[in-house]
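Reopening this one. Same input as before:
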Amino acid sequence: MKHVRLYQNAPLKINDKVMLDEYASHHLIKVLRFPQGQDITLFNGDGNNYQASVLSTQKQCEVHINSCKPNLSESSLSLTLAQGIAKGDKMDFLIQKAVELGVNQVIPIFTEHCVVRLKGEKLKKRMQHWRKIIIGACEQSGRSVVPELAEPLDLTALMGCNFGHVFVLHHRAEKSLLEFEKINKAAIVIGPEGGLSDEEIAYTIQQGAQPLLLGSRVLRTETASLAALANMQLLWGS
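Same output, byte for byte:
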């Protein structure tokens, strides 16, 4: 049986007995038909893996925490993805893969070409949905630090934040990643379908962002975002 990793939003300590939350219990009992007495791995975002034995598989699972071990899967490169909100499943896919690629923070951004307009209860539900995707991606990829999902920002608020080095992706830029010195903290700004407008690109550059070219071809937003993250990790991270 494939080894199971589950997130728990709770303190975890060696020798404690813990009742798993409703989602984790349902997943073990109903989806995996997980046997009593077998071991699983828990994490709560503190960077450790907690090995636990399943004591009960009744309505709610109880486990015993056997050991704690630091999880060394995090990259030395701190990366923020500031992503123009894409439509439907595309944004879900982007967030999931960005977490797998080691991003530390995801900031949805409202831009001129955003088709998706979220506010109020609709925004709240979408944020909850994206947080679940982030946790699921951590469970799958072996991470024990849960990346932050920030509240959506417009470009003005975004460029007022301190990210270290900021790169804005667009196909008319001239410099590639190979032309930059090694860094340990960066943010990538990219538009949704349709990209950033000329005015938005000019504004981010005026505010200190470095224009970044990924190649001679025009890439879709989901391709560009993930290609940039993967290349940055290859060059500067892990």
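So the earlier flakiness isn't reproducible anymore. For the record, Residues 120-141 form the longest helix (22 residues).
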